[in-house]
Amino acid sequence: TFILDFWLTIAWYDTRLRFPSNSARDVRLLDKNWFDEIWKPDVIIRNAREVDVLDEIVPNQAQKMLRDQV
Known about the structure:
Residues 3-50 form the Neurotransmitter-gated ion-channel ligand-binding domain. With 70 residues, the chain is mostly loops. The protein has strands spanning 27-29, 64-66.
């Protein structure tokens, strides 16, 4: 048995997201109000006997959009 705490960073392409064409920036940090509106892939841990996801008081999450739809 072992316990693992880790920080997970995931990236994906979503062709439905469009970067503002008049923006000079290559990265846009998204407001927290967007978190529930943007599709996010499910994370699966293969061969895990048990996985407990702890709910934090304030979820530690950030989303950014890159010009190439990542």
